[in-house]
Structures are given as C-alpha cells and as structure tokens.
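Deliverable D4.2, example record:
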Amino acid sequence: MKKIFTLFVALFAVIVYANADVTTEKYLAIDENGVYAPEFAAVTDPATFIATNAQDGMSKVSFGTANMVCEAVGGTTPKNVPTTEDGEFQGWTEGWNDVQWKNGNQGDIAFRYINGTGNPALEIGHQKKESQSDGWIFEPTYKYYQGDGALGLPVMGLYYKFTPKVDGALKIQVWANKGNRRTFWVTDSDKKAKAYKAEGYINGQNDADGKKRWLTSEEIDSIHNTAGEKEPDDAYIIGAGNQAFWGNILVDVKAGETYWLFQHSSQVGFQGYTFTPGGTSGIEDIIVEKSTAVEKKADNRMFNLQGVQVDKNYKGVVIMNGKRFLQR
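Output generated by the structure prediction step:
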C-alpha cells in the first residue's frame, strides 16, 4: 500500500509540474489602439484598408502562435453589370471590388476587430434584376455552406483556418453583426459544423446603469432558445440573432485537425484568440444517428428513435440538456 501511495504522489507531482509549464498563447490581430498585428499590417494599406497582396481575388494572411497555425483569407465580390432587359450576360465587365482588411470598433466596450471582405461561398452565379436607380442589371448570386457539410466548404470570400499542433482549448474573439448571421465552426476532415459556446456582449442586453452587460454562455443559450429556430442551421445563430454580438467563441481542438471559422453569407469580425494547450472548454461533440422518425408522448413531447427530445417541427435539430444542436 505504501508503494502505491508513493507512486501516486510521484505521479501527481509530475502532473502538477507539467501543468505548471503550460502557457496560454495569445494572438491579437488588432490591439486596443487599432494597431494591426505585423502580419495584417504588412498586407494592408493604412489609408484605404485595401489588401496589397491580393491575387486571384484573394488575400491570404498567415499568423499564429507556438502551437497554433492560422490563416485568414479575405475575398472580393463582382460589381453589378448594367444591361438591357433582353441582354445576355457577358461576364463581370465592370470589374471586381477591392479585397480589404477593415478596422472595426465598438467603442463603449473597447472591442476592436478586423473586418475582412467577401462572401464565404461555394459557387458564384448571376441573375438579371431591375434596379430603380440603374435600370436592368446583372448581380451576383451565391451558393452558401450548409451545416451538414454536404455542399463542401467555401472557396471564396472571408474565412479563418486554425490548425493546432496539440490538443487544447481555444477562445476566439469575434464580432457577429445583427441579422440572423449564422456563425460556423467547421472541421476540415468531415466539413461539418460543430457545436461551440459563446460568451460576451449582445447589443441591448444592459445592466442597471444602461451599459452593455457581459453574458455567460448559459445566458446567451437562453436568449437563443427563447427566440426559437425555423431552420436547422439556425442553431448557429448567436443569441436571438436580431442584435450584434461581441465576445468569445469557445471550442476544444485536436492536434492536426484544421478548423474553419466563417459566417453563412456575411463577414465575421476577428480580434484574436487565446489557446491553452491541454485545456478544455467543456464542449461536447454531440453526434446522433440521423433519423426523422419521432415518437409522441402523452404530454405532447416529441422524441426521435435515439430517445432524444426534438422540436415539434422536427427538421434534424435535437435538444440535449435544454440546448439545441444539429444532427450529424
């Protein structure tokens, strides 16, 4: 027994010593004074915010810390093409908009962020439309990502990629604009959106003094659940979606996997991240067998074949511990 106790003490000492050596890594893309990190500053015109390294409609910025390799990709969009009602599309003859790494700031909470350009889409097309000011025009159309990964990942527009060298906990500081923006956290290996926690400020959620109040992930989940969901991918709207969000996305990551951060049809603002090797954010990767069959209980609650409670308008969204997650 004494030998076992001695071995336990020695093992505990090794664990404490190892944990003491873990250093949380931090990267700021933009600081509190609006100064860009060197990687972004090197490719951004300070007067116009235009990316100076854009090629083929994309600006790529590599950055990271000791155990995290990252890439930001900003994109362009085509300008509308004037035409006649019976005209044929001749291509984007009016040219393309500049790729930019713009400077955003929510002053009352001193939250700075870089706001890149480009719609994170899988395909681009065109449609003819009558404009009150410009007559008949061709404007772009886009095919966007879906949370089940069936359509693939974006090939244009704004997105961020994170590849950890070791397992750990990642906290990403973001801005999500109002308008039901779906914010996706996606694994490259299966192209599927994953659950995450969000904590921070939501516009209109104030304290007794009228100042923005920091919300826990549980409070944000409650706001989201009260607002309800109409489509499966609405699970990835932060809060109710009708107000802007500034704060953290919390995820756990695995060594060697590449993760994508982007929004459905808009641009996510990026301030930076902190990474704790060996840490955990408490995120569970919830995976259930795909089935639309349901069983109705006497109290009108609905359950799928795995015994998981589902919404009455079941479209592949499951409820676990009072929180909604997409089936995968």
